[in-house]
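Hi! If you just cloned this repository, the fastest way to understand the data is to look at a raw example. We've pasted two of them here, unedited. The first protein comes first, obviously.
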Amino acid sequence: MANSSVKVITPVFRASFVNVFTPRKNEQSGKEEYSIKMIFEKTEDFTELKKIIQEAIRNKWGTNPPKGLKLPLKDGNAGDTEKYPEDKDMIIANAKTLIAPPGVVNAQCQPIIDPKEVYSGCYMRASLTAYAYDKGGGKGVAFGLQNLMKVRDGEPLSSRAAAEDDFAAFASAAENTATTSEIDDILG
């Protein structure tokens, strides 16, 4: 693994698939890892991230990198925007670490200890490195997760409906008890 020797701070992003306090098993590698999906506005400045990607490529393959490298910055429209509508018209990247959990602080640089404070939908910055890989026929560059800063709260991301919405029709059993004739009318 050829690492970038440079650590950079990302622009603000919306967090998703937040596994930064408890590791999650990567189904492909079988290893436990801490990870986060970063959802960036396309208007952000990615200059520093692109520099560490280029450095990782140079460190691994010199000036003649192989064709078809997988790169960590992706167009969100290339993914499943029906399943993940928050990705539409965004830039997506993932970052992970296998070594230890990242440090997580709030906007005042105070450690966040309660995992509930960091969730899919909040806004963050990350400190990252980049590394090149060449494993199992896959070649590319990935981001190594170092630390995180929660910048502000945001609307939680979830494809699950609110319980209030699911059960609104049953709010009061006395109000919503259908008669047999009403049920027959409904079911035809």
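Ok, and the second one:
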Amino acid sequence: MKYIIGNWKCNPANKIEAKKILLGYKKGVKKNAKAKAVICPPACYLELAREILKNSAELGAQNCHWEEGAFTGEISPAQLKSAGCSCAIIGHSERRHKFGETDQAINKKVIAALSAGLAPIFCCGETREQRIDGQITDVVEKQMEEGLKGIDLNSAPLMIAYEPVWAIGTGQACDSDEAAVVSRFIKNITNEKIPLLYGGSVNTKNAASYLKDADYDGLLAGGASLDPKEFCAIFTALREL
């Protein structure tokens, strides 16, 4: 099974634009045995996405809190599960570096998501400075050790997404040879039991190389997920591999 996860981030600005994107998916994204699409829109569009994509793709969340209750502005895994989500992105680099999320907080979210029946999409990856300093695998290893502490990697229904921070939204995708080094490193830790995704300026031109040459099981797409034609083309390429 190959996977394509669409992370809309804080887009689009209104429900009309969201509906256009979702309807665009229906032309090229269909549930099948070879490839699975998961769409992660802002929470305000989950109900709309659930209605339009019920026969095309699964729903995912972009984030979650680890508890319900007096946490203004947060959303719990149980609420997301009730809204139709099957998974949740946790530990995205923007959450880590722009909102100050620690490995410990991310670990709480992973545990809470699993307890609520959501499959975490656990993100890890290095900054440009860490890459230059040769710390790529050291950073990834620490993020996995702390963020997945207490998780049985042999049975937990989760995915891991390697997303080099310097490649996200920059158009400077990681070279497939370099991405393959990280793929081998992570799969050695997980014994290849957990689907591994690549994220960071994914597009139709480089999508296949990450799966064929770098041995990834799927992709985490940001900007490309807001363009239905681009996203559907990537989905089709995955399905045909």
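That's it. A detail worth noticing about the second one: Strands lie at 2-7, 35-40, 58-61, 85-90, 119-124, 159-162, 196-199, 218-221.
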